[in-house]
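Example record used in the benchmark description.
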Amino acid sequence: MNKPLIPAQRRERIQDYLVTHKIVRMDDLYNLLDTSEATVRRDLEWLEREGVVERTHGGAILNQRLTLEPEYRQRAQKHPEEKRLIGELAASLIEDNDVVFINSGTTTTQVIRHIRGNAGITVFSNNVYAALEVGDAGFKHHLIGGEFQRNSNSVGGRFAVDNLRQVYANKAILGVDGISLLHGCTVPTDVEAEVVRQMIDRTRGEIFIVADSSKWGVVANFQVAIIDEIDKLITDADFDPLAIDSLAEHSVESLIASANPVKI
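Model output (structure tokens):
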């Protein structure tokens, strides 16, 4: 008979597993540690208090810190097909005559690329890259003023926020760098955070978050929304089903972008 693990050993094994897999289910931990459900729950509670993990519906995820903002080109090279599908699905949810806020980011650029023309749609955005790309896209695209942010190809600061205070939208489609139940939606800079918070405050309708599955469990420096402020998450097919269940408990609907999109 194997000697039972002491708490420090169990917690170290949980952390080692999460470093490799990022997500763990309770059933996996019972088998990994050969211990009771109550003991596993106590270990996860301890690790959550220490900021190592975040408990979810039926398991846990590794807390991943994002302290610096990656350059736009670096982000664009990660998960390009997933972002394209997410952008296409998000754009399809924009209805005729909508006024929409869309922030900066590689996923939101894909949203703007896929907005159909000749539908009376108006977009207000701080996304400089998308503004340069869309040209005569057949919808109104207002680039808000502000200070240029090189890393994100966006504008922000006081002038951007002041411009947004003059507008109301009936939808907001927002990209974030991290999303978790405990820490909500986060971005790496205060400049972008101010813009996104103002977009949320000035939206008189649904708030959509567009984020590929790699953003789940990531925590950047600045919170822009708690989970309960979100109406829908648009993500890819690799998004963890347990995470979808956890979000549903907070009344967040998950839409999965794929060749044949389905609603969970």
